[in-house]
Amino acid sequence: MKRKIIVGLAFGLIAGIIDVTPMIMQNLTWDANLSALVMWIIAGFIIATSELKIRGVVKGILLSFLLLAPTAIIICWNQPGSMIPIVIMTLILGSGLGHAIQKFGEKAAKR
After folding, report:
1. Hey, what long-range contacts does 34-43 have (CB within 8 A, 24 or more apart)?
2. Interval 37-72: pLDDT, tens
3. Cα–Cα distances in Å, from 80 out to 11, 65, 77, 84?
4. CA-CA distance, 91 to 28, in Å (whole number)?
5. Rounded to whole angstroms, how far apart are CA atoms 14 and 37?
6. Going by fewer Cβ within 10 Å, which terminus of the chain is more open, N or C?
7. Residue 71 in contact with residue 82, Cβ under 8 Å?
């Protein structure tokens, strides 16, 4: 389990960097950038430790959107139009994160 958690955290960090890179180029605030990065690291941890018996892609999407929900309420309240790219990135990164953790996390857990 420990190796699977490390895989989850590593892929979560990668997803966070992918998500934050365009945010930095748009000169968004550092609190928004840091929030997105931390969300993906936590998503990696939760996906890696979750015992849900569903495919990794679906697990990644589901858990990523659940983690996004509280922040999404605040974002929608202030800037509803900005949710479109956030939803798209969450769908893409959540599915990729779930797939990667399932694929590489299971290999790591067998070692």
Report:
1. 35/71, 37/13, 39/67, 39/68, 39/71, 40/12, 40/13, 40/15, 40/16, 40/93, 40/97, 41/9, 41/12, 41/13, 41/16, 42/12, 42/67, 43/12, 43/15, 43/67, 43/94, 43/97
2. 999 999 999 999 999 999 999 999 999 999 999 999
3. 29, 16, 6, 8
4. 21
5. 9
6. C
7. no
Looking at residue 27, the DSSP 8-state letter turns out to be T
Q: For residue 55, give the 3-state DSSP assignment.
A: coil
- Between CA 98 and CA 57 the distance in angstroms is 5
Amino acid of residue 59? K
- pTM, two decimals, is 0.90
Whether residue 21 contacts residue 60, with contact meaning beta carbons closer than 8 Å, is answered with: no
Compute CA distances 107 → 14, 64, 110, 111, whole Å: 19, 22, 5, 7
Fill in the amino acid letter for 106.
Answer: E
Task: Choose among 87, 88, 82: nearest CA to 28.
Answer: 82
